[in-house]
Design a protein that fits this description.
Blueprint: E1 14-17, E2 21-24, E3 28-29, H1 45-57, E4 62-64, H2 73-82, E5 90-95, E6 97-101, E7 104-107, H3 111-125, E8 130-135, H4 140-147, E9 158-162
Helix pairs in contact: 1-2
């Protein structure tokens, strides 16, 4: 029996998020580690954690998640599988969508809600700072927050960006 080594994420090269945070171009999107419809827990929690560990072992330095995946499940699994996080691992998460059931999403872009999302993501991920925080670009409030230099969001502990809608 011969074994084939999996390619390293290193092969894709790197880029800098915000000009100062280097990550490999091949990252891992953690939406699929939740249950069916991106709802609740996966059927095999150990397998979900193993996938995350293998991604990091293969050189992934950027994991993308969102508070709405599960909801909250993906962030918790990432923490259980990888904390304490290896040096150089950037975790990006998102806010601005709520969940009412499997495959159901509703936008909420109020600044106070988004601030709460950031604070809760910090807790679930056991982080002092979120490397990159995406806003689902689905409401005028989100667009205002991104463009406003005096935004109440600017005082939180995260970089911000926009993300494609999960639909």
């Amino acid at each position: 029996m011969t074994s084939t080594a999996l390619p390293s994420a290193e092969l894709g090269g790197t880029f800098r998020i915000g000009g100062d945070m280097p990550v490999r171009r091949i990252g891992y999107g953690a939406m699929q580690i939740t249950g069916p419809g991106h709802w609740f827990h996966p059927t095999d929690m150990d397998a979900a954690k193993a996938v995350l560990r293998e991604a990091v072992d293969l050189g992934v330095t950027h994991i993308d998640t969102a508070d709405a995946y599960g909801p909250q499940t993906s962030e918790r699994i990432i923490c259980k599988a990888l904390h304490p996080y290896p040096n150089g691992l950037a975790i990006a998460t998102k806010g601005g969508m709520t969940r009412q059931g499997p495959n159901r999403w509703a936008p909420v872009g109020r600044p106070e809600y988004l601030r709460q999302c950031v604070e809760m993501s910090l807790r679930r991920l056991a982080l002092d700072r979120i490397d990159l925080y995406y806003l689902h670009p689905s409401t005028l409030s989100c667009r205002w927050l991104i463009s406003s230099a005096s935004s109440p969001y600017s005082g939180t502990r995260a970089r911000s960006g926009t993300s494609a809608s999960p639909r």
